[in-house]
Specification:
The chain is an alpha/beta fold. The protein has one domain: P-loop containing nucleotide triphosphate hydrolases (Rossmann fold), CATH 3.40.50. It contains 13 helices and 7 strands. Helix 9 links the parallel strand 6 and strand 7. The protein starts with a helix and ends with a helix. Bound molecules: adenosine-5'-triphosphate and magnesium ion (MG). Adenosine-5'-triphosphate binds next to helix 2 and helix 11. Adenosine-5'-triphosphate (ATP) binds next to helix 2 and helix 11.
Amino acid sequence: MSQVLSLGRDVKRSRGGAGRIIAVANQKGGVGKTTTTINLATALAATRKSVLVIDLDPQGNASTGLGVPRSARTVSIYDVLMRDHDLGSALIDTAIPKLRLIASTVDLAGAELELVSAEERAERLRQALRNPESGEVLEAFDYVLIDSPPSLGLLTLNALVAADSVLVPLQCEFFALEGLSMLMKTVERVRGAFNPDLRMEGVVLTMFDRRNRLSGQVEEDVRSFMGDTVFNTVIPRNVRLSEAPSHGKPALVYDMRCPGSMAYIKLASELLKREKKQKAALNQGVE
Ligand code: ATP
Ligand code: MG
């Protein structure tokens, strides 16, 4: 038993005291990365977990969708990444208890270029999150969700290098599998070169349309290709999910009972259950 406890402490220490860092990534645009980041984060916060969203996309959609206006983004992820600002100085409260944000600004578009010539360009975010001072800041969070941009550029690479795991929203459409295998190859390369412990958190099917036969077919293909990695929970196409960001609210706050919100609540609970199972398996392995 004491062995288990000390292993737990070691795992925690190796993360600089941080909670679990999950990169939400898919190089394909408009597949539901931001919608998943915002609503999964809100659903986790509703279970009294402390959650931090890091908006690593120059579009800033996660920041807008969480109701943080540009005028409130005084210190942003750009400043943390490129200007050595403390992580703590970039934290912004949202209207949701237990959910905080590190916002993005348009400056971040420049970071993609500036990083090309920077030293340790793939590891900037990892260093920013894992230095001792950041460790203290991150200690307060159970989960850190990083929303990434629609490319496999240096920002997404930084997210994958900094993360403990990667969560892939996948739209149920033609060519979904091609995009997924490209992303999996990138994850493999990141494991080999920078982050051997990077895990697959899972694939979540988004914008599922029950009336569309293609949706069902894509689901079948993805499940046979990826097996258990795919979450049982499927996010349906639901207009309330797309309306919510223009009100600066997560769908869970905008309309808690709509099918999209219910699906994200289910996804959060599935993620927590999976984590419990993994921890139990790890502990059994040690005993
Ligand atoms: P980008 O690659 O540009 O960052 P993204 O992968 O973050 O895009 P989102 O912004 O989450 O994707 O979603 C793309 C669009 O689809 C948005 O307008 C969003 O509101 C809408 N959308 C996302 N999920 C759903 C859904 N399940 N049902 C209906 N609309 C959705
Ligand atoms: Mg997005």
